[in-house]
Each structure stands twice: as C-alpha cells, then as structure tokens.
User: Fold these one by one.
Assistant:
Number 1:
Amino acid sequence: MKPGLILILILIGLVAIVWIYTLTGLSSQINEPGSLELPGKEIREYEGEPLNSAADFRENSIRGPQKVDISTYQLSIYGLVEQDKNISYPDVLHSFPSFRKVVTIHCVEGWDVTLLWEGVMVRDLIRKVGLKPEANTVIFHAVDGYSTSFPLTYIMDNPILLAYRMNNETLPEERGYPFELVAEDKWGYKWIKWVSGIELTDDPSYHGYWESRGYNNDGDLNRSFF
Ligand SMILES: Nc1nc2c(c(=O)[nH]1)N[C@H]1C(S)=C(S)[C@@H](COP(=O)(O)O)O[C@H]1N2
Ligand SMILES: [Mo]
C-alpha cells in the first residue's frame, strides 16, 4: 500500500472511533460524577475520615424495603409552585449539579451511621419549578406512604441533599433507592427514603408519619425527639 493510502485509512479510523465514542455517550459518562453508569465500589474512607457501610443500618422502615421501577419513576414537585413538574431519575441526575458530603444519620433508637452522600440540592430542584410567595413548608412524600416536612427556610437556606449515592455506590433498595433525603442536623425519621414527591404548602402544622405519632415536628438533633 502507498503511504498516502495508509494515512487516509488511519484518519478514517480515528474519526470512526471519536464518532462511536460520542454516540455511545461514553464521553459524558466520564465527565459527569453523577453518571448513572459509573461502576460503584463501596468506599469506607473519605479524605482521611472513616465511613460506616451501607450495610450498617438497621432496617426498620414502616413497610420494609420498597422496589421502585426506575423506567416509570418520576419525582413530582407540586403544590405552591409556578408549575408542577415530574422529573425522571436520569433527568434528576443529569440536569442538576451534584455534591458530595460526609454526614451522620442518627436514629432515635440510639444508633448512628456516617457515610459519604452524593446527590442534588433540594433547593436547586425547587428553584427550577419556581415558588409561589405563600409557600412556607416543604412536605416530602415516599413510595411507602411515609412523609415528613420541614420549614421552607431549612430547605432553601441550607445545602440539603437529595442523595442517590452513598459511599460511592448507587443507593441500595433497602436504603431508599432512588432517593433519600440527607436531612442534616435532624433525627433519622426526617431522612425520608424512596422519595417520590416534594410538595410545597402554606401549612406549617403538617405532621408526617412519625411526627403525627408523637415525634417532635422540628426533629432537631440537639433536642429531644418526643
Ligand atoms: N420512606 C421511609 N423513609 C424512612 C423511614 C420509613 O419507614 N419510610 N424510616 C425513617 C427512620 S425512623 C430512620 S431512622 C431512617 C433510617 O432507617 P433505615 O435504618 O430503615 O434505613 O429512615 C427514615 N426514612
Ligand atoms: Mo428512626
């Protein structure tokens, strides 16, 4: 073969490789830390800090682990917003910036677990739909019928994560897949798992599942829960 022909063949080969690479979406997977397809291996240390394992939880959910069909799953944001919105799982992961943080969850039963959480900020989701001025309370709803609520200021003034990964792995089913709220500085019963809805209301007296059974509605860690 002539050297010129070899050069042309090499060039065609290179173009084909780049084309296939972009077509398969490999490039975006590599650049996005929150990518769905990232292989997960649980980490047990982050920046020198030891972490517990996703298996260290005691499973005590009201109806046991929930199975969510991710192909039909939608996160609904509704109520006192400019326009209700349903967002698919991939859209939550790819359309919002993701953040990582080591946070400890404390259950009222006396155990705690420290993990590296990764997720999107709830306030970014809410800003996307636009708030009505009367909104003052955020109620989270879950697939198992569980719910819990917060003052709007807690959600908008703090970097509160809706997590889809823990310790570098996709949330396991028992831990709330697809989303668990990382309700920093709040008792475990505020860390709602299997989140399916975020409702904006003007009713600060709303009481969620455990709250309507006597647990403190603030759920502040530095206060007693009953
Ligand atoms: N949807 C849902 N989220 C939930 C619960 C639940 O029953 N259903 N239990 C809460 C409680 S009381 C705790 S302590 C944390 C951690 O529970 P786990 O150990 O069952 O993961 O999840 C919280 N989130
Ligand atoms: Mo709990």
Note: The longest helix spans residues 3-23.
Number 2:
Amino acid sequence: MNVPFVDLKAQYQSIKAEMDLAIQGVIDNTAFISGQHAKAFEAGFAQYVRRDHVIACANGTDSLEILLQAMGVGPGDEVIVPALTWISTGEAVTAVGATPVFVDIDDYFTIDADQIESKLTAQTKAIIPVHLYGQPCDMPRIMEIAQKHGLKVLEDCAQAHGAELNGQRIATFGNCGSFSFYPGKNLGAYGDAGGMVTNDADLARTARMIANHGQEGKHNHIMEGRNSRMDGIQAAVLNVKLPRIENWTDLRIANAGYYQANLQGPVTKPRVRPGARHVYHLYVVQSDSRDGLKSHLESNGIGCAIHYPAPLPHMACYSRLGHQPGDFPMAEKACDTILSIPMFPELTQAQMDRVIEVIQNFEG
Ligand SMILES: *Cc1c(COP(=O)(O)O)cnc(C)c1O
C-alpha cells in the first residue's frame, strides 16, 4: 500500500457537490476579485480566529509584508525571526527594507524565547514568532519581552489555523496575525490566498488600504499601495471549507495521537508544549539516520518530506549576514534529523498502520 504525504483529492471528493456549486456561483455572479465571497469569508474567519478585523489578501507572504509595513516597520529596522521557518518569514522583513535577525529554536521547533533579548538592539522594531508545524510558540513569554522593550508582535500563523495555548487562540496574543491559505495548509484554497487578522482598527484600515492600491473607496488613493486581493473563487472555496475546519483539525489531532501511541522504534516523536493545542500541519519525527530513513520510506511508497533542510540564515540568500555553522545549534541539529511523515485529516488507520510498519522495519 502506498501512502501519500498529503491527499488533497480525498478532501475534495468529500465535499465535491457543494464545492462545484460554490465555484460555479462565483462565475455566475462574476464576483472575481474581492466582492461578496471575500467579504463573507472575512466575516466567517473573524469569528473563527476571534478577532475583530480580517483582511483577505492574495497569499500568506504578502500578508506578512503588508502587516509589517502597516505597523511602520521599514528601512533601518531589525525584526526578530526564528532560524527554522519557511522563507516567507524572512522575505517579508527584507521586502519592507528591514533586516531579519535570526534566533535559534527551542525543543518544540519554535523560536527560543529565552534567546530573544540577547539579539535586541536599538533598531529592533518587531518580533515574528512562527507557530511552526502547527505548534504555538511560547507566546506569554514573547509578549512579556515585547512589552518590556516596546516591540510589535506579528504572529506567523500560516501553519497553525486553530492552534491554542492555554485555551487562547494563536493570532490573539500579538498585535496581529498572518495566515496562508495555500492549498496544502490546514485551511487551504484552490490557489494562492492569505489573510491578515487584528483587533487594532487603525492597523486593519492601513493594511486594507495597502492591499488595495492605497484606496479608501474607489479612486480615493490615500497612499501608494499594491495589488494583493483575494480572488472570488478562492474565497468561495474557503467559505465551503471553513465550517469544516474544526472537524478536520480534530482529525489531524486524532491521527497524531494514533502515531504517538503506536509508533515505536527508531524515531523520536514530536514534543508538545504543555498547554498547547498542536494542530499538526506537519507530523515531524527525528532520526539520526534521517537520510536513510527517508529513502527507506520512499522506496516503500510512503510520502515524506523535510521541513526544512537547512536553517534559513544558512541558506544562500542570507549569506550577506555572515552566519557560521554553530550559530544556531538547535536549528542545525533539527535540520539534520527531521522528517515529516504523512499527516492529513483523511488519513486512514490502515494507512497509518502501514507508515508505522515501514518505519519500524527500518534498520538505520
Ligand atoms: C506557507 C507559509 C507562508 C507563506 O504563505 P504563502 O501563502 O505560500 O505565501 C509564510 N510562513 C510560513 C511559516 C508558511 O508555512
């Protein structure tokens, strides 16, 4: 039996009739950009994330960048980002003219809050905690540091829709949160889409303007902005999926529980932060023979992937920062040992049993 890493088709099959109608509806209404579907999504998602303002936009990279700009982060500023994350987190900082300052990770693959203060300078303006793999960062500690030093906090929630810490939803700790609805994310569109969330009305107004050519009302350009709007088809897709996200999240958590209980043998299973609702965008195991394990899984038809193969500051695009091996020991160790194994809501017990069996047969 082959087991795919993710199976977006399985989910589509389970909602096909409703989805096809919704997409046809967008074409019938010619509500292609922003419009009624995007508005409905903004209202629904605001309820889901428990924030007053949601601004739908084109993707989760734009949403990070627009929020930084809207908070006044720009040239000469520094922004704290984790050493282990997807490139967008760093790219957004550079895109507004600021400099990313990388901080190593903790035992939960998220930014090590205890190391943030040692990286602060007079130029530091903001922190971007990333709830990596669906696990919340240590937000109480991060907010304490931010308040003490007068820093803004933008939560990168691209992998963590619905995650909570001590019963509190992510994206409600910091000044604002950024979501991606890339198809493979926990809540995924059928193309690129993103969302910005906040309780700060001024920040919401500025972010909305930036994302729509600096307009407030038609042809009233208060500033130069850009074009980063959600298209109607993506909004309609998300409107069909939104009422199901809690159920799909519970299924991810149940699947992780099954791995946690039944996967024995030559891998380390992920640690969950006390008090966290980890929503398992990815289920990441560790092995000292990771490359061998990866080949073994692939040759047995089990999908797997590495998120990510190197700490971001060690990638070629950040060579200008001059980091050396050893600067981020935890992230470096993680990148040598991590492997993401199949995780999606529709994963069956038979599929998980097969993944477990193949891992247990590995002689590394
Ligand atoms: C996916 C992702 C993004 C960017 O989202 P896009 O919609 O692909 O632009 C940003 N940050 C993290 C951590 C991500 O995983």
Note: The radius of gyration is 20 Å.
